[in-house]
Amino acid sequence: MAINLEKGQRISLEKDGAELSDVSLGLGWGRRTKKGFFGTSEVDVDLDASCLLFDEQGQLRDQVWFRQLKSRCGSIRHTGDDRSGGGGGENERIELSLGAVPAEVKSLVFTVNSFLNDSFAGIPSAFCRLVNKATGQEIARYDISLDGGDYTGLVVAVIYRHEGKWKMRAVGEKGYGRTFQEMMPLISANLP
């Protein structure tokens, strides 16, 4: 049974005493409803998921996003850019082989940004979920549409090493920026 995470909540990425190795972090969102003269229609929403790899000193070592779909080490892969949203499931997914993440990487930060600089207000059913790739079982889910708001970026979660074990923290810090680069001060402030 999946854990419904709340902002600031932490979980261990161990199951039955064994550390999970292959997981994916999926991001899903609905399409915005627009009211017009002839009724309502759905409008595309272009959100972008990113994974940023940081070392112990808080230095960015690599990034995975729609302009670089794979980390240089090959341990993290983005499945591709969705520019419309909707569908009820995951729209973008980042797959991780945690056992292959280089030892110098201490934390993986996940962000979502509105590339068209549209606010998150009115975007329905936005969530992220962590899945065990071996079983397809959902480990944790974090609802990121509860707040709405005029922000254009969000630091969603951090997966980090603590005493040699991988842990996850739901972050939920709102920011502004079309890409993760524009949110680096907020991202840095949320490193473990």
Structure description:
The chain has a single domain (about 5-30, about 40-190), classed as Lipoxygenase-1. It is about 5% helix and about 50% strand. The protein contains one helix and 16 strands. The chain has a six-stranded mixed β-sheet, with no helix packed on it. It has a six-stranded antiparallel β-sheet with strand order 2-16-15-12-8-9, with no helix packed on it.
Keyword list:
192 residues, mainly beta, six-stranded antiparallel β-sheet, 16 strands, 48% strand, globular
Largest sheet: 6 strands, mixed
- CATH-assigned homologous superfamily: sav2460 like domains
Per DSSP E runs of 2 or more residues, the count of β-strands stands at 16
Number of helices: 1
- Terminal-residue CA separation: 27 Å
**CATH C-level category:** Mainly Beta
Helix content: under 10%
Mean pLDDT: 89
The domain count comes to 1
Pfam families: TerD
Keywords: Tellurium resistance
Protein name: Putative stress response protein, TerZ-and CABP1
Domain TerD: 1-183
Concise summary:
The chain is mainly beta and 192 residues long. The chain has one helix spanning 184-189, and strands at residues 3-5, 10-12, 14-15, 18-19, 22-28, 32-36, 39-43, 47-55, 60-64, 76-78, 92-97, 105-114, 127-132, 138-143, 153-162, 165-175.
